[in-house]
């Protein structure tokens, strides 16, 4: 039996409904899963092949490591792709895909050394563990473990899972109580080990992850130009108050800390991560949910340092934040983590791929004053702050995206002993089993996020249980739920209906999706005097194809209107805000003056599209935060 | 005869008055030159010794290159220090300093290889020219040339100048028409070669510099993660429209391009650099004159991308910008370049050293939300965005600063056939020779920048000539000049008085130094809704020792008042602005909301000190741009 579950804690507030028991159809995410299936997965396969990252395994296997291609960590991209393939076959069996997985698994296994060690760079070309700070050696191992977990849960043992187990034993021997005290500069092995423990029952793996988490923050890594915080080695995990340093490293470490906390019953550690997440969400996050205010070190800035133009908000950071929020949601049951996941999915995960699915954003700014750098077809740029590109020299983001999209349905629902939680509102079906073997099958009909009506219909049910539907935080006080023809207001959080459900029973949510203005905390210096527009879970943006974006200002007293859809791709709702076009003073020889007169301006209509859809129509300028007047 | 002249073009609009003919006394810059003499120079000597950067020469000389210490480019810091020592002995002869220069010169010369090649890393430890992109090999050579020029002009030939000449011959042979087509990733050798040509008359050096400039921009360097623009190899120098990429590299290259243009009569090349400077000053400069909006790559941002918090504005970038502006001023005679030099000197060059002269800023932000990172005494941090530190692991800034301060008087005045230009207003004396052997000696009395009165008194003179006094651009229409008891308004630019000067004749400038608010071009998104305060040439800032800086807002309708002086160090004028303290809403779980209420606030006085003086009283928060209401 397959079980499409990337995260399967043995304790916590609720238990995930497997992704193969949740089927998206006909909606926003079904479209993206289909694009992933049809285009993105094979696109990634083509590129890891073209870049020589697969050949690195073959070269290592043949004992010709000098033929290795790519940066130190490219093994991880192969593993993430295998993981994605595995989830995809769990979602939709496909014999050709299955053959490819086996083929890749054999390639990986052939590169393994007799004692279980496996890395195409270290070992063959350089002494093992010679550069834990920057080598990404255990990071790659962690991704192999996650690929193996996907394979174990959707297929069973094969060459790849055998290789992963042997490598896990090697890691435990080399870094266990009788091995060295050390951590990898880039966390990942920790969460991979916990999940491999969950999938295999091997308690050594959990213990090794616990050991890595306990060691982190004790400066076993060397100094770094931007400080030990770069790799989260500045403070023990349980003592830190906020996420900091490199965003993806911080998130992967937080995910692992939750995993360890849940499996070992370490409440203090869990509470520490919850507090770190909350502080980070409140003070170091962009409107899109993205994190990473600094390009240097791909890192968090100080509190409220959130420049829209230099927002790094790496796509991988969003994928990683979904991983952390999901773990926290399962552990605590707190709805704010589901809200965060929704924001991240609609405004970053959906943003990275192009409409055609063959190009990806790596960096996701909220302001482009000048059209971004276009990358020709077939080129993998060194730069990451380009427009979408087919691939990157450092290409962690596309493979992260495809593994999340293939498993996305697994992040939708969870169960407790007595109830079913629907965390994300997507058209499709959900089958779930609660305590006492009570089973239910639901059908969700909605055109969300374009429309606010979400109908949840019970198709099958046995026994009495609670249905918990998430009412998003953004909806404020405007939502109603209709049960048995009775409509009543419901507050953000989980709207709960408990009963002995019968087929045909329905709950209909009506969420208020009128466009709304939002403002930033006054501590965010970079956003003073601006407003942004949201509609439902979507952040909107102003996109222009001329160089006059600075001339436009918005009237924050007049709500944006809805326009007929003729936007790019699957954009169903465009908006138009009321504003002015002001002639700015001609730039002078020096940009600072005692008085700078700006005209009142002439009325103008500001075209807005969802942020996820921008940059699909050629080079453009764009802003999420629009000056108001 | 010594001649304290770092830049001595053979053509151009005016000719520099040597720095040893300009004596600062009793004023702002005299104090800093004295601090340089008493503390800073020896401090740098102590640190290049302590870090092992001197020993690298000894190790290379002994054939023990494995004992080399420090990063690839530390030779350059030794050369910059020798250059500074040489200028300082030209300013104030000192037998002990002279002995030290000879000692260092012998050390350097002993590391030279028989064929003239000289570098403590390449050659001894790695193949010559194996990494032109990142090796800083020719960059180090260029700094040796500049040190040799300082020595030639203030002393004469010695071991160091011989070593420099031999290395210059090696560079010309290796990179000349029969050598390789290549440039160094970090420009510097070019301007060093031109100045060495000027000091020695060896035309090959000029031709080699011309060749390097012509090659730059043709992508002989490999791709770089942030693009070829990082090392200005994206476009030929004469085709570029604005400075971009790494700030210091861009400025050093621009300086060299002016040098080559002036010496070869290449008007097109000169015009190109003027246009690049103007565009950069107008759209990519901070209020302090600083450049570099991005920490990543220490580089320029897009036009009007000028975040105050992440301003990099490296101290070296300010030193380099002074170098470029001075060359442009000599070449064109345009006053705006002298205005730029003043802004850079008072607001960045003066900012870097601590009051005691033993700590330095590397990065110079315009906003600190959280107190910066304090560095313990005796530690050279890897990080550059700390508070002032004794030294840095990469320590280009202190040695750049000391060589500029030792030679600063050479940037004060210049002559044409018929006149004397006083570009900077500093207390002291100026002796100059104009065409036809006409000599003049002036005495400048002023408490500038604290007071606006500048009295220029002729002490000796022969013949009729024009005196040109710079009236700064910031003074607007408020300046008067008094000649023969007649006071008349003068506009920014050069106030010119032509006559047959007699001893005792005076011109008195009265500059308006009332505090003034300035605003940023509306295209600078990061500064919307804020104002800054300037007084005379000084940028002021709000510095606080609590964490409540975000609560303060300023009333831009009420001019700041002057406070009695009790500020740090030599701050003679503190200001106080009128404003309010507002209680900000408590940070919520998410920093973006439909409405965010901010109270009107209670009246508050905002203490302002000159930006150059900040961070001398312990960890603090600071802002130049203050929210207005």
Main sheet of chain A? 10 strands, antiparallel
Rounded radius of gyration of chain A (Å): 24 Å
Q: Could you tell me the mean pLDDT of chain A? A: 95
**Category by helix and strand content of chain A:** alpha+beta
Total helical elements of chain A:
13
Report the helical percentage of chain A. Answer: 25-40%
For the largest interface in this structure, which chains are involved and how many residues does each contribute? A-B, 66 and 66 residues
Share of β-strand residues of chain A: 15-25%
By DSSP, the count of extended strands of chain A is 23
Shape of chain A: globular
Oligomer state of the chains in this structure: homodimer
Low-confidence stretches of chain A: none
Q: How many angstroms does the end-to-end distance of chain A come to?
A: 60 Å
Could you explain the architecture of this structure?
The structure is a homodimer of 629-residue chains. Chain A is an alpha+beta fold and 629 residues long. Chain A is built from 13 helices and 23 strands. In chain A, strands 3, 14, 15, 16, 17, 18, 19, 21, 22 and 23 form a ten-stranded antiparallel beta sheet that branches. In chain A, strands 2-6-7-8-13-10-11 form a seven-stranded antiparallel beta sheet. In chain A, strands 1-4-5-9-12 form a five-stranded mixed beta sheet. The longest helix of chain A is centred in the first third of the chain and has 23 residues, at 28-50. At the A-B interface, helix 10, strand 14 and strand 20 of A face helix 10, strand 14 and strand 20 of B. Strand 14 (516-520) of chain A pairs antiparallel with strand 20 (592-593) of chain B, so a sheet runs across the interface.
């Amino acid at each position: 039996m397959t079980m499409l579950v990337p995260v399967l804690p043995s304790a916590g507030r609720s238990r995930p409904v497997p992704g193969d028991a949740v089927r998206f159809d006909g909606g926003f995410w079904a479209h993206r899963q289909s694009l992933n299936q049809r285009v993105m997965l094979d696109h990634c396969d083509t590129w890891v092949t073209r870049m020589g990252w697969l050949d690195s395994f073959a070269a290592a296997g043949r004992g010709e490591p000098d033929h290795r291609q790519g940066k130190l960590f490219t093994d991880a991209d192969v593993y993430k792709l295998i993981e994605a393939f595995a989830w995809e076959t769990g979602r939709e069996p496909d014999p050709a895909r299955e053959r490819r997985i086996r083929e890749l698994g054999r390639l990986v296994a052939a590169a393994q050394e007799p004692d279980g060690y496996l890395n195409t760079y270290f070992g063959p070309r350089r002494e093992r563990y010679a550069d834990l700070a920057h080598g990404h050696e255990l990071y790659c191992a962690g991704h192999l473990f996650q690929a193996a977990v996907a394979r174990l849960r959707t297929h069973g043992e094969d060459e790849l899972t055998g290789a992963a187990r042997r490598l896990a034993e090697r890691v435990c021997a080399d870094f266990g109580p009788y091995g060295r005290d050390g951590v990898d500069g880039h966390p990942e092995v920790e969460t991979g080990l916990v999940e491999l423990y969950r999938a295999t029952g091997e308690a050594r793996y959990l213990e090794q992850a616990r050991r890595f988490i306990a060691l982190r923050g004790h400066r076993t890594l060397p100094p770094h130009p931007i400080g030990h915080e770069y790799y989260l080695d500045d403070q023990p995990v349980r003592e830190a108050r906020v996420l900091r340093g490199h965003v993806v490293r911080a998130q992967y470490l937080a995910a692992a800390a939750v995993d360890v906390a849940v499996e070992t019953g370490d409440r203090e550690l869990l509470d520490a991560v919850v507090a770190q997440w909350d502080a980070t969400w409140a003070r170091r996050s962009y409107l899109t949910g993205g994190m990473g205010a600094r390009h240097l070190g791909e890192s968090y800035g100080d509190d409220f340092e959130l420049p829209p133009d230099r927002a790094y908000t790496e796509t991988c950071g969003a994928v990683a934040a979904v991983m952390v929020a999901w773990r926290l949601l399962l552990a605590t049951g707190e709805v704010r983590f589901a809200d965060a996941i929704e924001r991240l999915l609609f405004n970053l995960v959906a943003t990275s791929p192009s409409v055609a699915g063959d190009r990806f954003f790596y960096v996701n700014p909220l302001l482009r004053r000048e059209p971004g750098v276009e990358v020709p077809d077939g080129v993998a740029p060194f730069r990451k702050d380009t427009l979408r590109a087919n691939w990157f020299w450092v290409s962690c983001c596309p493979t992260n995206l495809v593994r999340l999209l293939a498993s996305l349905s697994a992040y939708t629902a969870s169960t407790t002993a007595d109830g079913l939680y629907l965390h994300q509102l997507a058209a499709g079906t959900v089958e779930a089993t609660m305590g006492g073997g009570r089973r239910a099958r639901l059908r969700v009909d909605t055109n969300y996020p374009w429309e606010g009506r979400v109908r949840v219909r019970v198709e099958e049910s046995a026994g009495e249980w609670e249905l918990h539907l998430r009412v998003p935080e953004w909806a404020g006080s405007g939502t109603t739920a209709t049960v048995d023809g009775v409509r009543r207001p419901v507050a953000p959080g989980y709207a709960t209906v408990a009963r002995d459900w019968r087929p045909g029973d329905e709950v209909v949510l009506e969420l208020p999706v009128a466009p709304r203005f939002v403002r930033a905390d006054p501590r965010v210096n970079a956003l003073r005097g601006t407003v942004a527009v949201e509609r439902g879970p979507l952040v909107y943006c102003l996109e222009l194809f001329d160089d006059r974006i600075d001339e436009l200002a918005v009237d924050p007293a007049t709500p944006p209107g809805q326009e007929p859809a003729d936007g790019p791709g699957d954009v169903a709702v465009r908006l138009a805000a009321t504003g002015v076009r002001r002639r700015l003073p001609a730039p002078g020889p020096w940009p600072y003056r005692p008085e700078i007169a700006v005209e009142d301006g002439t009325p103008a209509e500001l075209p807005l599209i969802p942020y996820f859809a921008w940059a699909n129509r050629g080079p453009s300028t764009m802003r999420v935060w629009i000056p108001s007047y």
